[in-house]
């Protein structure tokens, strides 16, 4: 396993900085056009540009994002609206084929409907602002969005419809598809939706549908922690379950304080999860892809994002070195 990033490059200097910091693997999209229109040539040129900085392009984002459906490029897949969803699925299948032809081995995606609900930020270390969700402060009776009221069974039917058509293409063209769980867990019916990928049981069901070595997770450790009553005790067994089955294709390596329905995001060294212990579990299950920071706290300074993420890159790099040293030192 190795440190990675999905931060969008603001300019070419960012590629230079990542290479200088030892971040040699990324998830990044071409600047030209949208995922709906990327050609093989667009993707090849993008990969070659990334590689010119000594960086490997591990994956890109499919046109299924974490935003609410109102802002999604392919909304009809989770709206269940045919024939529009069939056209959108075919665009995604063609993109998977093009990734193979362009030499890009994986893609991440979301099957989201209501986005990423949050309440007001909490103040963290040194006055940083930390993203938070407190159910007691949420608009619990918020109206449904464009998807309307969607039952658990309907949600699963739409996910199954998508996987049935996409997973065989991913398997044929050997492209790993990494799905992000629903962030955060919300009670059934919130904004009209029961979020089936907002629980560990739901994630387990998901990866066993249309079973394939190319169908797995963009395992957001922070999001999974948000599903748990006691993440500092429970998260390691969850990593083991998915890791032993080779269902983790990427890791959003972030930490939180709190748990289900009452948490805030932190820097990796100050949350409730022992991140060194977590990295040891990833190592023990044979995880072999990126560990990337995600959702860093908002800090002060002229390049707040760059500094915050750089801190996390170094932290992750140190943890990887530490667990590799443990492994090599075993008698």
Q: Care to describe what's here?
A:
- By secondary structure, the chain is of the alpha/beta class.
- The protein has one domain: Divalent-metal-dependent TIM barrel enzymes (TIM Barrel), CATH 3.20.20.150.
- It is 40% helix and 17% strand.
- Helix 2 (40-51) packs across helix 4, helix 4 (84-102) runs parallel beside helix 5 (152-173) and helix 9 packs across helix 10.
- The longest helix is centred in the last third of the chain and has 26 residues, at 304-329.
Shape: globular
Task: Note the beta-strand portion.
Answer: 15-25%
Q: How many strand segments?
A: 12
Main beta sheet strand tally, sense and closure: 8 strands, parallel
State the CATH topology: TIM Barrel
Q: Determine the mean pLDDT.
A: 96
Poorly predicted runs are none
Query: C-alpha Rg, in Å?
Result: 19 Å
Helix content: 25-40%
Distance between the termini: 22 Å
Second-tier CATH architecture: Alpha-Beta Barrel
Q: For the record, what CATH class applies?
A: Alpha Beta
**Helix vs. strand class:** alpha/beta
Provide the number of structural domains: 1
Strand order across the biggest sheet?
1-12-9-8-7-4-3-2
Tally of helical segments: 10
Helices and strands, in order, run as: EHEHEHHEEEHEHEHHEEEHEH
Name given to the CATH homologous superfamily: Divalent-metal-dependent TIM barrel enzymes
């Amino acid at each position: 396993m190795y440190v990675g990033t999905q931060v969008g490059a603001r300019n070419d200097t960012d590629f230079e900085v990542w290479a200088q910091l030892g971040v040699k693997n990324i998830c990044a999209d071409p600047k030209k056009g949208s995922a709906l229109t990327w050609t093989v040539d667009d993707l090849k040129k993008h990969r070659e540009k990334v590689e010119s900085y000594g960086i490997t392009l591990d994956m890109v984002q499919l046109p299924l994002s974490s935003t609410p459906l109102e802002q999604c490029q392919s909304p009809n897949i989770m709206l269940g609206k045919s024939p529009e969803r069939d056209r959108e699925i075919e665009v995604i299948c063609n993109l998977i084929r093009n990734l193979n032809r362009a030499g890009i081995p994986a893609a991440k995606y979301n099957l989201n409907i209501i986005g990423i609900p949050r309440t007001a930020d909490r103040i963290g270390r040194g006055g940083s602002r930390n993203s938070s969700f407190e159910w007691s402060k949420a608009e619990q009776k918020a109206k449904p969005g464009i998807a309307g009221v969607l039952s658990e069974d309907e949600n699963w039917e739409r996910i199954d419809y998508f996987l049935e058509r996409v997973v065989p293409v991913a398997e044929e063209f050997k492209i790993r598809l990494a799905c992000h769980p629903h962030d955060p867990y919300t009670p059934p019916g919130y904004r009209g939706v029961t979020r089936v990928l907002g629980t560990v049981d739901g994630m387990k069901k998901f990866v066993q549908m249309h079973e394939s070595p190319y169908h797995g997770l963009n395992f957001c450790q922070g999001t999974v922690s948000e599903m748990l009553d006691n993440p500092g005790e429970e998260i390691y067994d969850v990593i083991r379950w998915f890791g032993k089955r080779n269902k983790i294709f990427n890791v959003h390596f972030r930490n939180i304080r709190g748990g289900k329905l009452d948490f805030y995001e932190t820097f990796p060294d100050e949350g409730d999860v022992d991140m060194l212990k977590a990295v040891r579990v990833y190592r023990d299950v044979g995880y072999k892809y990126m560990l990337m920071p995600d959702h860093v706290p908002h800090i002060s300074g002229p390049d707040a994002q760059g500094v915050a993420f750089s801190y996390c890159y170094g932290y992750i790099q140190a943890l990887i070195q530490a667990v590799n040293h443990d492994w090599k030192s075993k008698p």
